[in-house]
What we know:
Layout: E1 2-4, E2 7-9, H1 12-18, H2 30-41, H3 46-54, H4 60-67, E3 81-89, E4 92-99, H5 105-117, E5 123-129, E6 131-138, H6 143-160, H7 162-170, E7 174-182, E8 190-198, H8 205-224, H9 231-234, E9 237-243, E10 250-259, H10 271-287, H11 289-309, H12 314-325, E11 335-340, E12 343-351, H13 365-373, H14 379-401, H15 407-421, H16 426-435, H17 443-455
Antiparallel strand pairs: 1-2, 3-4, 5-10, 6-8, 6-9, 7-8, 10-12, 11-12
The structure holds (R)-mevalonate.
The site of (R)-mevalonate has 9 residues, from helix 11 and helix 14.
Amino acid sequence: xxxxxxxIFVHSKLASKMTKPITGFSRLTKKQKIDWLAETxxxxxxxxxxxxxxxxxxxxxxxxxxxxxxxxxxxxxxxxFGLAPNFLINxxxxxxxxxxxxxxxxxxxxxxxxxxxxxxxxxxxVIDTKKIGQVHFNFFGNKQKLESFFETVxxxxxxxxxxxxxxxxxxxGGVLAIxxxxxxxxxxxxxxxxxxxxxxxSMGANFINSCLEKFAEVFQDEAQNYADFSSEEKDIEIxxxxxxxxxxxxxxRAEVSCPVEELNENKDINGEDFAKKFIQAxxxxxxEPYRAVTHNKGIMNGIDAVVLATGNxxxxxxxxxxAYAARNGKYSSLTHASLENGIFKxxxxxxxxxxxxxxxxxxxxxxxxxxxxxxxxxxxxxMKVVAVAGLAQNFAAINSLTTTGIQQGHMKMHLMNxxxxxxxxxxxxxxxxQHFTTHTVTHSSAxxxxxxxxxx
Length: 456
Ligand code: MEV
């Protein structure tokens, strides 16, 4: 594909196939969908079709469950489901399930868990659990009159969502506040109902969106009957009603600390020098966005893996966390470190909207299992675990980066992937793992050694 004079040209072979769009694809059976795909894009290759079928679950009920999670399912896409044990969090010893394809991540988490386990463990606390949703609308008229209308209609909005909020209220949640926000300085006639919610153990997306749509409906209807409004003012135009994935008041903090001399694991560097270098690495991520993005990516390695394993919405978590990282107008580090009075401290503060009930949590067998492994946590407890996983990951990354570099450990883990790619036998893997304990792994050196072994 290439760009020319603002037009996109698609490779001609592909373009000829794409000149005939398919209608009614979603109504085809799974087999028909695969046949169409094979014929249209895969040159009718039986091998490609076999790959799709190979990943079907032989338990047809389990397969159907996965088919129905989303639309147009053809097969399953596996991710490794692993475990990082020995996490001491607020005095409890937990094993953290992680779903991730990247080598080294689980090993790094486990290593950090072991390190901090013998130095008091991780301390984590939930700061707040407030979630946000907004009704975006246009109002054409006098702002004071809109404010008076809003105050009059607010109790009716709360009343109108009672059928939706009743159960949530029994669990201690519900609508916390509805505020009118004037956004006309940014877009002419644009206002919001800015709403705050408590959703307890559910992530709350459906709950919040249902409340918002009801607010919008009642707000618009009531405006029609509000005597003080002119006919133009009565016609409030609802643009959209949707939760926000930016949740800066649904916040969790996790921390580790120890006397600086206890940072002495690496024989080549003393605790104080290690701490100073470590803190500078964090400071760099605080001031330098190019580094901050990679620094935070490493944190997300831990966070996403737990969020995925526990069936939560990692896209929501990602967008909310990155927005938080840029809240002061410049993208910055999510973690911070200090050395004061001989105590090294390292902490993270992130917004996290998570659920441990609803959604996939009782549907997906592995998600259920992940939550069982975590001892059926509340949403607040899960927030703490996820923050700790992010902090641990960042500790491991900065530890490696500021001492040995990451390639040494990373390439050892990567060795297995390279050997698997070349269909190495168990005996070959064993022999080459041994060889590379004293040699540097690169892709070419691994392939060369495998060739040598096969020729010998
Ligand atoms: C790799 O997935 C993550 C790291 O790049 C994170 C970092 O640089 O801090 C190692």
